[in-house]
User: Fold this.
Amino acid sequence: MSDLGSSSANPLSYDRLSEFFEQNGILSNAAEVHGILTGMIAGGASIEGDDWLLLVSDLIHEGQSFKPAVRERMTEMANDICASMRDPDLGFNLLLPSDHESLLERLTSMINWVQSFLVGFGVNQTNLTGLSDDVREVIDDMVEIAKLDFAVDEDEEGERAYFEVVEYLRISAMLCFNELGRKVGASCTTNKVLH
Assistant:
């Protein structure tokens, strides 16, 4: 079982993935791609077949088809997100820059992740009225977080606030998945070899 959720032991690290997407002409960085995929999966989109890849292509690649290596990487990411969302040990994590990067860079990536999550989530969930109060509340909170304009203090308090918001987003994404995505994503696996 791969551990692609945690940023520390992540072979698909933020930097390597961002570089990979850039080299393959994808305008979105790793946080944005991860956010969109997480939002789609948490919102109940199926990652069976190729339809979801066409949708992601519309959202981040101007509708152009992905190169085989990109399709493989996207499929790998989607399966890992799905599997980590199902992890009984709550193994899901946001894909963000490492703690060695500046707080401003990490906050910017976090905002990009949230905005992208909302786009991905909105693909399947256009009307929030049928959702539980908890899910509606976290989506409202995410909308507010996505609008934040940070005045960053590179201090312990700023770090603590960042980690608290990231943890809230992590739990919120899993909450959405448990209500909406779990039924659809029954077939997600991480032990598939895609090479």
